[in-house]
Amino acid sequence: MNYTKDDDGRLNNFAVEPRVYTADAPSKADRRNYLIMAAIAVVLVAGLIAVAVAASGAST
């Protein structure tokens, strides 16, 4: 562990920093999978909104 000592003699313990790395660009397969997941999410949200609208209109 790395300790530093200030003028009053107190120790300060610093956390170990993680190694830094660069991210790789997504491949064509990754981009396709992201697009498919986004389409599924849009359909799911639209379906939930449709059910909410139908349920709110059924009570009147």
Task: Explain what the structure shows.
The chain has a domain at 25-60. It is of the alpha+beta class and 60 residues long. 52% of the residues lie in helices and 13% in strands. It is elongated and about 70 Å long. The mean pLDDT is 87.
Q: How is the secondary structure organized here?
A:
Blueprint: E1 2-5, E2 11-14, H1 28-58
Antiparallel strand pairs: 1-2
Distance between the amino and carboxyl termini: 67 Å
Could you estimate the helical fraction of the residues in percent?
Answer: 40-55%
Strand order of the largest sheet: 1-2
Number of DSSP-assigned strands: 2
What is the mean predicted local confidence, pLDDT? Answer: 87
Could you say which overall geometry the principal axes of the C-alpha atoms support? elongated
The low-confidence runs, each spanning 5 or more residues with pLDDT under 50, are: none
Features of this protein?
1 helix, single chain, elongated, two-stranded antiparallel sheet, 60 residues, alpha+beta
